[in-house]
Design a protein that fits this description.
Largest interface: A-B, 47 and 49 residues
Strand content of chain A: 25-35%
CATH class of chain B: Alpha Beta
Shape of chain A: elongated
Number of helices of chain B: 5
CATH superfamily of chain B: P-loop containing nucleotide triphosphate hydrolases
Oligomer: heterodimer
CATH architecture of chain B: 3-Layer(aba) Sandwich
Distance between the termini of chain B: 20 Å
Strand order of the largest sheet of chain B: 4-2-5-6-1-7-8-9-10-11
Number of strands of chain A: 19
Largest sheet of chain A: 6 strands, antiparallel
Number of helices of chain A: 14
Radius of gyration of chain B: 16 Å
CATH architecture of the largest domain in chain A: Orthogonal Bundle
Structural class of chain B: alpha/beta
CATH superfamily of the largest domain in chain A: 5' to 3' exonuclease, C-terminal subdomain
Strand content of chain B: 25-35%
Order of helices and strands of chain B: HEHEEHEHEHEEEEEE
CATH topology of the largest domain in chain A: DNA polymerase, domain 1
Number of domains of chain B: 1
Helix content of chain A: 25-40%
Amino acid sequence: MKHIEGAFAVTAHIKNADRLVCLNAAAEEHGLRRGMGLADARSFCPSLLTELHDAQADQAFQRRLVRWAQRYCPWVGEDGVDGLFLDVTGSAHLLGGEAALLHDIRTRLARSRLTVSIGIADTPGAAWALAHFGQGCADTGDTLKAVRGLPVASLRITAKEDTTLQRLGIKTVGQLADLPRATVGQRFGASVLMRLDQALGHQAESISPEVNAPVYATRLTLPEPIGLAKDVMAGVERLLPPLCEKLMRMMAGVRVLSLSCRLVDGGAQTVELRLARPLRDPARILPLFERGIGEIDAGFGIDQLRLVAVQVEALPAEQTTQASQGQSRQDDGLHDLITRLGNRIGLENIQRFLPADSHIPERSFIIAPAAWSEVGGAWVSLTPRPVRLFPPEYVAASTNRPPGSFKWRGMSFKVGRVTGPERIAPEWWLEDENWRHGVRDYWKVETREGHRLWMFHTPQSPGWFVHGTFA
Amino acid sequence: MLVRFPDVFPLKPCRYHEVTGAGSYSFAAICCGLVSSRVLWFAEGWVPEVLNPNGLQAYCDPHQLLVGKCGNAADVLAATEEALRSGAVPLVVAELTKPLTLTSGRRLQLAAEAGASTGLMIVQEGMGSNATQTRWRVSPRYSADVSTLMQWELIKNKAGTCGDWRIDWNDEAHRISVVSEPVQRANSAHEAY
């Protein structure tokens, strides 16, 4: 972070104009405010320095603050894009009361040069009002007294409602609270009353804390750089158990692991391990790393290892029986093999066949990656199908029935026996370039030479093709 | 002594074998059907001819097949060797497009021994390696009665002489039967194994 003297603002393109999203105290002194157009702001303050708004980074920073704020209480929610709600009920005394808590938050955030405004009150609404218009601690049980003098905008009402209230001369929360409820309800609808009730505690309001996604990562920093594959393996052996323990607690298994090795000269080498099944057993994961670690170029040495579970899947504990143990051990062996092969040829390239509901030969089965699919479905075929399929190969013939002799792939064939035809119509609801010749009459053609071919004739645009081979 | 069919088929375990000819895929599928466990089948990804599970189901359960699509011929060999060595599956089938050298054949043989699994390489005619245990040439044959007749020639055998059989696949019984040569013995019954 760079420290900037003088006026500075963050801008974003909102409603067809560059506008100020956030600005520092020096800029405010020049009379700038949020939402102002950048062109206007420049005319007020020509020396204004600006930076483009990075919403994602802001959000990530807010997330980090949420995580940090959990040191004060377990119940932390986000408020818009620039605030946090902390439910400190029952945890303020741990830091010596609300005032001490406030002081602690202030000093810690000031140390990291963050400007904050904080309010503590009995209700989220009142705390929000205090934080935005006044700051400080409201006395317990006397919320109205604390917010009485604050402007009505502090009730989180819309800008339109705020303007109307102002025009009627109702400037403060106290004035609004003193009005008869019926007239306020009639004049402004339920929303203003709801906000007032929420601030004063007549209506409940819950804050919804974001559950932090658990971070599955471990790190090992080394006093002396290492360079041998054996040493890196030893490092991974130490990193795995705590990671797997955490996975065990969360009933999860890792699918993709990434090991990054920081080199002493500043570079980094990454080894990615994609597993065929979710795993959390260090003894099984460790040997799978061997190949990847062997390929690391350690350079001048590695001084930090970081192991991250990039992709995690639910892996609930399962009851095993004496009988299922043998089978599962065999499956474990196969899955480990698939993982090792997958790291060589790509995990998605190890596939299995699944039956599909279609008469089109090429679409009567699905090829699915074995690591992400389960065996299922029954194989049904009413007529014999060829063992091998290939893109249709043209054969010169002009009859409707299979020709008596023909040439295919440079070989001459005499036809011995034919079985068919079996007419297969294209699936009109799917556009398929290969089926533009229309319906096909399939024949099983047994040649005198021995070859058994699956040929088809397209009556709508006459032609003969070989589509597959039996045997 | 002449080799008898039951001595050479089912294929000798812990070894690797080669098959060639137009009928090599059904031969491989029959071998897959003989093992009751998962089978790994490696092929190069660019080859336009693909296995059709609907056709394979006559010989074996397509659910048992795991197909590995490799980028090139070297990957096929490397993956096959790794699968054989791990011993996780009893049978590994690989389609090869390049000649198998003596070194790679020997490596496959050692891997099969180490993992106690059987390898079956589908090779082009004349592209096999001398390290193989057996080499078969399988070609479909025309017959007026059945449409599943095949000629299985044992053209290399490390542990005996070569042989030649006529094999018929029985679709209902899901097994092969050795058919006597009609020219040698007229009116002979099917001799089943």
